[in-house]
Amino acid sequence: MITEKRRSGLKNFMNRNETVGYVFAFPFIFGFICFSLIPILTSFYYAFTDFSMGSKTVEFVGGRNFGQLFTDEIFTKSLGITLKYVFISVPMKLTFALLVAFLLTRKTRLQVLYRSLYYVPSLVGGSIAVALVWKQLFARKGLINSILTQAGLSSINWFGDRKLALYPLILMSVWQFGSSMIIFAAGLKEIPSTYYEAARIDGANGMQSFFRITLPCLSPIILYNLVMQTIQAFMAFTQAFVITAGGPDNGTMMYALYVYNQAFKYNNMGYACAMSWFMLAVMSVITVVIFRTSKFWVFSEAGD
Amino acid sequence: MFKKFLATVLSASLIMGLCACSGASSETAAGSAPAADGSAVEAAGDTAGEEKVTETAAAETEKEEESAESAEPVTLRMAWWGSQTRHDITVAAIELYEQEHPNVTIEYEFFDFDNYFTKLKTLVASDQVWDIFQLGGNFPEYIDKICYMNEFIDSGLIDVSDIPETYLKITQDTAGNQIGLSNGLNTYGIAYDVDMFNEAGVPLPAENWTWDDYKDAALKISEATGHFGSSGLASSEFIAGCSTYIGQQGSVGQYGFFNLDLTGMGFEDAQMLTPYIQMRADLIKAGASPDAGAEMEITNIENDFLVTGEAGMTWVAVNQFPTIYDICKEEGRTLALATIPRVKPDGPAGAVIQSSQMLCVSKDSQYKEEAAKFIAWFQTSVECNKILNGERGIPVADSVRAALEENLTEGQQIMYDYVSLVGTFETPEKVNVLSPDGQDQVVDNYRNYIQQVVSGEITAEEAADKTYADAKAIFQ
Amino acid sequence: MKIKKGIVKTLYHIFVIAFGLAMVYPVLWMISGSFKDNSEILRGSLALIPRAVKTSNYATGWKGFSKITFATFFKNSFLITAVATFGTVISSSLVAYSLSRIRFRGRGLWFTCMLATMMLPGQVIMIPSFLIWYRLGLANSYVPLILPYFCGQAFFIYQMMQFMAGIPRELDEAATIDGCSKYGIYSHIILPLLKPSIVTTVIIQFYWKWDDYMGPLLYLSKPASYTVSLAIKMFADAASKTDYGAMFAMSTLSLVPVFLIFLFFNRYLVEGIGTSGLKG
């Protein structure tokens, strides 16, 4: 009788929501503390020091690193370039992803094949291999220029001009629209076909039903993709690192690349940490702005 | 003949990035000879490595013995940067050493220049620097991790009597601490394509040609051939060009880019840089030198535009010359070496003979003595250097140099003659070729300023002022 | 009417295929480059069909560098990627279950933390993480590249939570009535229904991990422990006379595993994305 009670006590304990929750969430909590929280706090501390990898002594320098941000020309430049990259590439990528996803909703036996075809750039785009190919494509005597000259145009020195060099990188980002496309496709699938039928009966054409039904129904998903892609674009690193190394004249000095350079190339770890924190602040502000404005354009289904 | 410039090289030290990319012509010699028993050595090495894991740091008191069987197994970690040719020959040399010393296993790592230092910085932070590591003129940044080699030399553990005092000095600091042992002698020059000069009707460079001659040649070649007049790896240009340009002004030794003890600038008037920056910008604007986009396509000396036949000249660290000479010869083109141009034909040459890089013993090492023994062997063994074949510069040990001099290739002969020639130039009593911590950022900015001059955003005067201010800021 | 419909249909297919081919052109160009001669690549030829098919690029490239062949690099990449992907699937599904189905104290906090880690720039924690791994004596091993993946990946936790939101709660309730514990609900109901989402996770995590460059660069030092992406970059940087043909050959090979995983699972890709939870 008593043992039974105890056993059921244990059973009750194990089945309490608190216990179950923490048992299942344990891997994340452990990982979060060890691999995110502790490093973040360390990095926050370093942001107020002159820490560098080479030296053993760490001196507290107060807000100097943050002050330096405002006198550093390259920092301002890289911030501008990153914002330009984000504001051009993200809308283009999402528009493109949505159009292609919409195009591929048409039921055919080849749908899976088509979707795979359009997903290939996303599948391979993050690799070093494709970055090296991209560099080759836009080289002075590369594929793009040979297309231009064959079309009777003059070739363009993409990576020789500060104002142009960012565009191959933007194009590469837009090219990898696949993951957004897949998420849009999943969303499109869930829009009840009855909505469209009702619209057709009301005499709406394709355009009208796209703007009146598709877009509003998809708006939560657009929001999600917008946030994810914006964050990802802010952190863009590998492509600039492999393809242009930030040049020419810092024309492609993406923020994350500059952070990396300050940390590893110029050995100013403390300053780099301060820059990372500034980046975190900028990203948070933009994310908050996106969420705040979202209530004006994201439609939620009533009652949910 | 090398005695000639013994007197001239004084406390010169290394220069960073000098040999980031280069190669020697001895690939076959290096690749085939030790490869046959390489696998056996590796197999033996693996077990030694596993045993080492459980070992404590008791090895420091260990007396080294030549009878290898009885010696305790030792695992050394070693790293360097360079090109594929260097990786292959260095691995072959390591395998030879392991064969001669069965108790020693060397775990090696190799990188390109940038990644090498990224890795090194992480190891410094975690007190895990490789037992044997390669450093250049940027060694002051890592001085806390370097174990001076004086005690090993004084105790007779390693025998460096074959290396002339002068050459030991090129890897000592001013206090006489032996930072490491030099991998070879080196200096900068301009490699050029003889036929392109002739085609453009430009006289071949004289020993004391000037920057005006150089600019003129570059413009004419570019006009006549449609190729670049002068190309170049951006990393070499600052040291070989810009920094040398300062040293060439005034009297011998009056100016340097940085001062001798690396605590400040070696010149006061920023405008001394202006004519050089203006010339660089003019050449790029005229299409006679690669612009940023073209420059990006040069990843190492072996695909420089001079080597691909698209330029008349390029900067080289002369240890790179034999390799590109051979490549061009295969394609029927002849390369030659010219001196760095001067400000005035009778003014200072500004060129110095220096160490390419050196191997150092790490303070983190458990086996400092074993590491030192390896380094001494690496620099003084004739057998080892037959494999290395001067790819890191002209060897410093007398017997090694003598052995290699017996069968030089054409390209190597030109390099040797060139180094002798530079040795005859009048050089200052003291020279500083070290890079202060922070130079990387100055050089990156300097290159961007030149691009801004090209695009007309700023004037050469402003670029000079900005470069000067950046460099000065290092010391604040 | 029928004919017109047919024409529209055909035009649609032609357009989709042509446009799709334009999208994958760079990849096709790389593959064809792996069969081309070095000089042909450098001239920037448009043609996808090499003038002379040169298969020796593969043999040259496979040799790798300093006696380490690409077989070693592929083996290393497979090991790291497979284990990390497995870890991601298991841990992320556990965490997603707790955050989406269990009402426990602190849930909101941990959910916020999870969202925050998604937005954290990797550069912020790179160095401190390295130092921590060193103090644990685990730098220079595969552990830092694998262990964090057993702690759930925020992106996938979030994806799975979206998907779970689409699994009717009535199923849970029915199971509870039948005497099923919360643990049983996870293993008997949620996990099997989560299959499409798991497949999506496998595909995406596999190619993310396979392509990862920074991690191996920081944590691996011995050339014999390099992954494919690190090896390709080293190959391109260090090769004396940069051999584009061989580089493209190895690049092509490096994408093969990613393609295979994708082809094998791709029919689930769209099904695996849950969007129910996104609706306001």
Low-confidence stretches of chain B: 1-69
Q: What is the arithmetic mean of pLDDT of chain B?
A: 81
Give the number of domains of chain A: 1
Helix proportion of chain B: 40-55%
CATH architecture of the largest domain in chain B: 3-Layer(aba) Sandwich
Full CATH superfamily name of chain A = MetI-like
Q: Got a strand count of chain B?
A: 12
Q: How would you characterize the largest beta sheet of chain B?
A: 6 strands, mixed
SS strand fraction of chain A: under 5%
The pLDDT mean of chain A sits at: 85
Strand segment count of chain A? 0
Quickly name the level 1 CATH class of the largest domain in chain B.
Answer: Alpha Beta
Shape, per Cα inertia axes of chain A = flat
- Most extensive interface: A-C, 100 and 94 residues
Structural class by SSE content of chain A? mainly alpha
Distance between the termini of chain A: 47 Å
- Number of distinct helices of chain B: 19
Could you name the CATH topology of chain A?
MetI-like fold
Provide a count of the helices of chain A: 14
Question: What tags apply to this protein structure?
Answer:
heterotrimer; B: 476 residues; alpha/beta; D-Maltodextrin-Binding Protein, domain 2; 2 domains; six-stranded mixed beta sheet; four-stranded mixed beta sheet; 11% strand; globular; disordered N terminus; C: 280 residues; mainly alpha; MetI-like fold; flat
What's the short story on this structure?
The complex is a heterotrimer of chains A (304), B (476) and C (280). Chain B has 19 helices and twelve strands.
Write the layout of secondary structure elements.
The complex is a heterotrimer of chains A (304), B (476) and C (280).
Chain A: H1 2-15, H2 17-46, H3 64-69, H4 73-103, H5 111-124, H6 128-137, H7 143-150, H8 166-175, H9 178-189, H10 193-201, H11 206-234, H12 238-243, H13 255-265, H14 269-297
Helix pairs in contact in A: 4-8, 4-9, 4-11, 5-9, 9-11, 11-14, 13-14
Chain B: H1 3-6, H2 27-32, H3 38-53, E1 74-81, H4 84-100, E2 104-111, H5 113-125, E3 132-135, E4 146-147, H6 150-154, H7 165-169, E5 181-182, E6 185-186, E7 188-193, H8 194-199, H9 211-225, E8 228-230, H10 234-247, H11 274-285, H12 292-296, E9 311-317, H13 321-330, E10 335-338, E11 354-355, E12 358-362, H14 368-380, H15 382-388, H16 398-405, H17 410-424, H18 439-454, H19 460-473
Parallel strand pairs in B: 1-2, 1-3, 8-9
Antiparallel strand pairs in B: 3-12, 4-12, 5-12, 6-11, 7-9, 7-10
Chain C: H1 2-33, H2 38-42, H3 56-62, H4 70-101, H5 107-118, H6 122-135, H7 143-146, H8 154-165, H9 169-177, H10 182-193, H11 195-211, H12 214-219, H13 228-238, H14 244-265
Helix pairs in contact in C: 1-14, 3-14, 4-8, 4-11, 5-8, 11-14, 13-14
